[in-house]
Amino acid sequence: MWGSYRKKHKCKSGNAKYRRDGNRGLARLTVRAKPGNPSRGLLDAGGVVFPCALGRGGISSRKREGDGATPLGAMRLRSGYFRADQTAARHARLKMTPIDGGLGWCDRPDDRNYNRPVRLPYRGSHEDMHRADRLYDVCIVLDWNIVPRQRGRGSAIFFHLARPGFTPTQGCVAVTARVMARLLPRLSSRTVLEVKR
């Protein structure tokens, strides 16, 4: 999917900068809320701007578990997951792990595995990463509340695929599958996603 996408979908003249440095990695992705709509955003990737979905709680400097807000600040891309039965991640620079039906992500603040991947079945509250809605066909983990972890500071803050119409996320940043396919070959563990106001 990733290699064929670039051949089939040529960048328009307004995206000349992207064509020139297409083989280089992106150091930074900058996200801002769209004026008048706090749960919709604009993602700037090396001068090319794409629409994105943000949390239902808008952008917050006081992120808390369950508030639906996208955290304000700079977050490094750590690694990613993908649904091997739906897509491929051959050209990714990030470490990408296939998602199977036994992968979950703990979201219970008082659990010892809070904000960590867990194997299912799991007794504590968790998110199922093998989603029927395909939002996690490609899912990149952002380093929000990972090291160190703080109880209740927020979990499962990802960069993933958007729902139709860019409906709000639970605090993540989400883009279309086409945009993700375009960006993924240029993302690495050195890339920082910065959410600004």
UniProtKB/TrEMBL annotation:
Protein's pathway: Cell wall biogenesis; peptidoglycan biosynthesis
Residues in coiled coil: none
Pfam families: YkuD
Keywords: Cell shape, Cell wall biogenesis/degradation, Peptidoglycan synthesis
Disordered: annotated span: 1-22
Residues forming the catalytic site: H160 (proton donor/acceptor), C172 (nucleophile)
InterPro entries (alphabetical): LD_TPept_cat_dom
L,D-TPase catalytic domain mapped to chain residues: 29-196
Biased composition (Basic residues): 1-12
Domain of life according to the entry: Bacteria
Protein name as it appears in the record: L,D-transpeptidase
Native species: Mesorhizobium marinum
